[in-house]
Amino acid sequence: MFSVLQKLKKIVTIRKVLMYGTTMLLKEEAVATLKQFDIGEKFSYLPVLPKASVLIPLFVRGGQLHTLLTLRSQELRTGAGEVCFPGGKRDPSDQDDVHTALREAHEEIGLPPDQVEVVCTLFPVFSKKGLLVSPVVGFIEETFIPALNPSEVSAVFAVPLDFFTREKDHYATHGVAGVTGPLHSFYFRDPASGNQYHIWGLTAMLATLVGALALKKKPEFNVGFDILDPFTFFKKILHKRLSKL
């Protein structure tokens, strides 16, 4: 009997080691890939514009890369009930785009800034409100438990990144005013709560972009730009918008 228990403990230990190794490998590969798309100071020449940042939190669960999304509170004056990444407008006291993203994530879902391993800042994009939004990608621990600020967030849920590369739950609308390329939309059923969430617009596009880059996987649908060279596309859109200011 003792021998059997020892064997069982050994099997459990081996499984934990293998799972840890898989988790670290997935994370390391994603970090190495995403860092290649870090904009650094490439857009330092931009004029002073109303700015915002979002944090795209990544983590590994069950051998898969996931991201966290939030459902905005119904109490908010704008964007009430919409799905988005943690984030918001830049404050005068914020040091940079990363600072804004981390501060907002802390205020909205209780994520301590020192528990985020910032990987990169992706290409800035304009929101429908005219804000220049900087997407900041970072890794967090799978064990993180959100502490919601009810005045800003009504729910937090996790989505496998692979979900944003599949055709099954994806919908696209073309020819939308003010939108270059297709307007992406997803319907996700959260297995933890049973709730269905509509993920669309800028949030859907950023989730698709990060999913494709981190997983090195071409989406099953037309994303509207070259996934191998997204920088050129976003730079073109940015300059087009700036020319109209």
Produce the secondary structure layout:
Layout: H1 2-35, E1 51-61, E2 64-72, E3 83-84, E4 87-89, H2 97-109, E5 117-121, E6 125-126, E7 132-139, E8 153-160, E9 170-173, E10 183-189, E11 196-200, H3 201-215, H4 230-242
Parallel strand pairs: 1-7
Antiparallel strand pairs: 1-2, 1-4, 2-3, 2-8, 5-7, 6-7, 9-10, 10-11
Helix pairs in contact: 1-3
Describe what this molecule looks like in 3D.
It is found in: Peroxisome. Its cofactor is Mg(2+); Mn(2+). One of its GO terms (cellular component) is peroxisomal matrix. Its EC number is 3.6.1.77. Belongs to the Nudix hydrolase family. PCD1 subfamily. The protein has 245 residues and is α+β, with helices and mostly antiparallel strands. The protein has a single domain, classed as Nucleoside Triphosphate Pyrophosphohydrolase (Alpha-Beta Complex), CATH 3.90.79. Helices cover 31% and strands 26% of the residues. It has 4 helices and 11 strands, in the order H-E-E-E-E-H-E-E-E-E-E-E-E-H-H. Strands 1, 2, 3, 4, 5, 6, 7 and 8 form an 8-stranded mixed β-sheet that branches. Strands 9-10-11 form a 3-stranded antiparallel β-sheet. A hairpin with a 2-residue loop joins strand 1 and strand 2. Helix 1 packs across helix 3. The longest helix is centred in the first third of the chain and has 34 residues. The chain is globular, with a radius of gyration of 19 Å. The termini are far apart. The relative contact order is 0.16. The model has no long low-confidence stretch (mean pLDDT 87).
